[in-house]
Design a protein that fits this description.
By secondary structure, the protein is mainly alpha-helical. It is built from 12 helices and no strands.
């Protein structure tokens, strides 16, 4: 029976990955993929890796609240601060800061899933990856590398395979973004275990120095400044 359930989940993952590819990254399909991996051995392994990181176990045990940003307040912070940079990104791209699917956080797997979902755009700001497909692959690769977050492992792998097969002219940039994210993930402190809300006023450059992000992607072809 467990084997049958795993086959069903794999088939559903494949269907969702196809839907994500065809839609150009439909958020509902991405959320479906994320949720499809919550109760899996892969998520169990991800949680073990996360819990072993400095400060992560405390966040899990206290169910540190998912991000709920006050964009109006953050937009008034100093230019170059994390809060101001985050608010500017959300407003410039007309993003909904609550794009993520509401989830309960009563289990460790659901808490980690929601924490990663709500802080996704902060990772863009701190890492410097843009919001086009290559930039998204780069930023997802950071967390995929650091804790093996299941949906992000699938998405980063699928993005490269799909580009290689269907858009080979884009593959060099896609693979470069993924490699950049992997290298950043290996070098930097775990982004999923950071309490961003306690340092909105701090400069992004200071956060990067603390976390060990030595080569942000801002000016790359897949970066935020391009």
């Amino acid at each position: 029976m467990p084997r049958f359930s795993e086959l069903l989940r794999a088939a559903n993952n494949l269907k969702l990955l196809v839907a994500i590819g065809r839609s150009g990254g439909d958020l509902r399909s991405v959320a479906d993929l994320v949720d499809n991996m919550v109760a899996t051995p892969q998520m169990d392994a991800c949680l073990q890796r996360f819990r072993a990181l400095p400060g992560a176990a405390a966040m899990l045990d206290e169910r540190y609240p998912p991000l709920q940003p006050d964009l109006a307040r953050l937009a008034c912070l100093a230019e170059g601060s994390l809060g101001r940079s985050y608010a500017d990104l959300i407003q410039r791209l007309h993003y909904d800061p609550e794009f993520f699917r509401p989830r309960p956080i009563d289990t460790e797997a659901l808490w980690l899933t929601q924490r990663i979902a709500t802080t996704h755009d902060i990772h863009h700001v701190v890492c410097g990856f843009g919001t086009h497909p290559e930039g998204e692959t780069g930023v997802l690769a950071v967390t995929a590398t650091q804790i093996g977050f299941p949906a992000y492992v699938l998405l980063t792998t699928a993005a490269q395979l799909s580009t290689f097969r269907l858009q080979p002219e884009r593959f060099p940039q896609m693979s470069a973004a993924a490699a950049h994210g992997i290298a950043m993930g290996r070098q930097a402190a775990c982004l999923a275990a950071v309490r961003w809300e306690e340092g909105w006023e701090r400069p992004v450059s200071e956060w990067r120095e603390q976390l060990g992000i030595l080569e942000p992607a801002d000016a790359a072809a897949y970066g935020l400044k391009v």
